[in-house]
Amino acid sequence: SKTDENVTEVATYSGFDNSIISVDKGNVSAIAEGTTEITVTYEDVVTIVQVKVNKADVITLSVNPSSVNLKEGETQQLSVIQTLKEAGKEDVLTDVTEDATYVIADDAVVSVSKGKITAKVVGTTSITVTYGDNSETVLVTIEQTELVVDRIYGEDRIKTAIAISKEGWDTASTVILAHGFDFPDALAASPLAYQLDAPILLTRQKSLAPETIEELKRLKTNNVIIVGGDIAVSKTIDANLQSMGISVERIDGENRFDTAAKIAKRLGGNPHKAIVTDGFNFPDALSISSYAAQNGYPILLTRSDRLPTETKNGLKLIPNTIVMGGNLAVSDAVFKQLNNPVRIKGDDRYATAVAVIDAFKLPTDKVYVATGQGFADALTGSVLAAKNGAPIILVRQNSIPAPTAQLIEDYDIRNFTLLGGEVAISSSLFQ
């Protein structure tokens, strides 16, 4: 006995002229006048279907919207509808958005994929949309993105760190605590903080600020990692934290190089790159801190003229090295001792920060801005920048250095978050 089975959707359809018809799971759509045939195959059975498409009384193509205004980076989806009008019959409307062709007059201004327009740069252009024998033109205008300038700050560096914490974290089971008035121990902390989703808070040597205590309560913190020895952060602070029911872990070494190496060990994993930077200056380390954090690369410190034993040992199992700064920061003698080293440098600290963005092609739709003349705001902001996939650029308090200004122009950067108050970065710089 025979059993009828509907195999319309699983049969294959081939051999037809796709300029005349399209076929989708047995559904035939007429595109243009003409004759063709469809070879229908299911298992070992083949059937030929003859198809004739008569010229409709009227075929029209409509594109909505017919003109588009966007800002850089924005998108707009077009809708392309073909209408067949035949006397005495209802209009047949077919969505041909994905099958239409799109020709851009100036593809530097926009790109198009299946009717979705993406604005690239400021300018005007047109897109010719074609399906069958019909075409329509869409006019496109791309305007400059509005300038967005935010600021995260407090009355001092300790309160700015708290403000950054509030901006990025509703809760944080772990917090990194560092000395707020000297940089060596904290320079290497950003990758670990990012890994643990921990904000970095700052303290004076002998006691926590009342505002810091309140922030730990707000974050519902149950573990604090102190970076540095008791010369940097007194053990009185350990006791204070423990009295709040917070467990304390301390990462400290015999010196700044040892502390950085121990932070790298605590970071763990099997990173294929490490950052090596001058242990006696802060800007180069902070310029790459967001990138290092996002990629899980430890930051290790060196003397300019010789590689400390602690750093050398910390690098043994890491096959590649990114060296920050020029020969004055990390000499060629040190450079040659490193595993597959690549140097990132500029003429000064500001140009080096720009070089990081250029070298690694970092996204610049949003950037964090810190003073290049102090370490605290860039340090605490680096983890927030990493959380948001954004780089850090450096400026002077009252001026934007030429390399930074050129970067802003070249990348048309329009979204800035300033770290620190007016004393760190004047509002007049970004207006």
Helical percent range?
10-25%
Instruction: Give me the side-by-side strand order of the main sheet.
Output: 7-15-14-11
Mind summarizing the main beta sheet? Answer: 4 strands, mixed
Distance between the termini: 83 Å
- CA-based gyration radius: 31 Å
**What's the shape?**
elongated
Uncertain regions: pLDDT < 50 for 5+ in a row? none
Number of strands: 27
Specify the number of helices.
Answer: 12
Helix/strand structural class: alpha/beta
Bin the strand percentage. Answer: 25-35%
Mean pLDDT: 94
Give a written overview of the molecule.
With 431 residues, the protein is of the alpha/beta class. 25% of the residues lie in helices and 33% in strands. The chain contains twelve helices and 27 strands. The chain has helices spanning 157-168, 190-195, 210-219, 235-243, 256-267, 283-287, 289-295, 309-315, 332-335, 349-360, 376-387, 402-411; strands spanning 12-14, 21-24, 27-30, 34-42, 45-53, 58-64, 67-71, 75-77, 79-85, 92-95, 101-104, 110-113, 116-119, 123-131, 134-143, 148-152, 174-179, 200-203, 223-227, 247-251, 273-278, 299-302, 320-324, 341-344, 367-371, 392-395, 415-419. The strands form eight sheets. Strands 7-15-14-11 form a four-stranded mixed β-sheet, with no helix packed on it. A four-stranded parallel β-sheet has the order 16-27-25-26. Strands 18-17-19-20 form a four-stranded parallel β-sheet. Helix 2 (190-195) links the parallel strand 17 (174-179) and strand 18. Helix 5 packs parallel to helix 8 and helix 10 runs parallel beside helix 12 (402-411). The chain starts with 11 loop residues before the first strand and ends in a 12-residue tail after the last strand. 39% of the residues are buried. The mean pLDDT is 94.
